[in-house]
Amino acid sequence: MDTAIDDLVRAARTVLGRPVRFERELLGGTHAVTIVVRDGDRPLVVRRFPPGDDAVGLELAAFPVIAPLGDLVPQVVASGGGAEQPVIVTTLLPGGAPPPDLTADRIATAMAAALALVHAVPVGTGVLPSTPSAPRIGDGPLARRARAEWSALDLSAPVLTHRDFWCGNALWVGGEITGIVDWTSASTGPRGVDLAWCRQDLVLLGAPAAADLLLREYEGITGQVVADIGAWDVQAAASAEDRVETWAPNYVGIGRTDLTGPVLRQRLDAWNAAL
Fold first, then answer.
1. DSSP-assigned letters across all residues of 92-106
2. Strand (E) positions, the chain?
3. Cα gap 123→218, rounded to integer Å
4. Dist CA 250 CA 264 (whole Å)
5. Per-residue pLDDT tens over the stretch 22-81
6. What are the beta bridge partners of residue 189?
């Protein structure tokens, strides 16, 4: 067994206070080491974040807020490890990566419906951090444009925002979403934050037309017209501008080995040129 995984199994035993058995590693993200362990007959997800990372504390704060989503979100079982080895244990939701034969249009419609549910969750004042807090910094052309278009953003009427809403943070059975995971960045903010991020994911999957379908579906479900989506698309593009190649391992983790760094760069650049 890999040393990091072996260490994480031991950490899970310590946090839970009882023996567990390693079952498998979960891929699809690079922020944390993630495994499934067996606690008797119950499968649990165990994640360890880098030393000093506050992801566990942020996610623990988010769980009471996202509870109305019910079976779409995991439940916290335990946490611990301190600042040096932050570990969180949650229930395992059914489903996995989007099936390889799933069309981009189906991904778009399912993600739109799930996002509408997320944005309908009531949020209290001050429970979660607000986003965005300031214009994008940086010297790239998209970062400069994002700052120039900051005043075009509608920052009113905040909703619950996931802030990393892409197809790899949804769990799938066939063409249906069975869960939404990785709530470490949960915040309150405008609808456009999640919509633009998810639209950009569809673009990187090679389906810019599906990005427009996502918006139409979402607006049809919610009755909310997101008139400033173009400005939000620029904000999302500015966040990806200097690092999109580094996302290739995340896509490899959900089985999309075709999405190499150069492919992601080409698709993002083409999308940015059309914004």
1. PPS-BSPPTT--HHH
2. 21-25, 33-39, 42-48, 76-80, 87-91, 159-161, 170-173, 176-180, 187-189
3. 20
4. 12
5. 999 987 666 788 999 999 999 999 999 999 889 999 999 999 999 999 999 999 999 998
6. 159
CA distance 46 to 65: 21
Which residues, 6 or more positions from 225, have their beta carbon under 8 angstroms from its beta carbon? Answer: 219
Q: Residue 269's pLDDT band (boundaries 50, 70, 90)?
A: very high
| DSSP-assigned beta bridge partners for residue 35 | 25, 46
Residue with tokens 């080491």: 33
Task: Return d(Cα 188, Cα 62) in angstroms, integer.
Answer: 11
CA angle, residues 140, 53, 98, in degrees to nearest 5 = 70
* Residue 116 neighbours by CB under 8 Å, 6+ apart: 218, 221, 222
Tell me which residue of 226, 240, 252, 261 sits closest to 30, measured CA to CA. 252
Read off the pLDDT of residues 153-175 as tens digits, 9 standing for 90 and up. Answer: 999 899 999 999 999 999 999 99
Cβ distance 227 to 191 under 8 Å? no
> Which residue shows structure tokens 């990785």?
182
Residue type, 170: A
201: confidence class by pLDDT, cuts 50, 70, 90: very high
Spatial distance between the Cα atoms of 245 and 60, rounded to a whole number of angstroms: 30
Distance between CA atoms of 198 and 182, rounded to whole angstroms? 15
Q: Which helix (H) or strand (E) holds 159?
A: strand 159-161
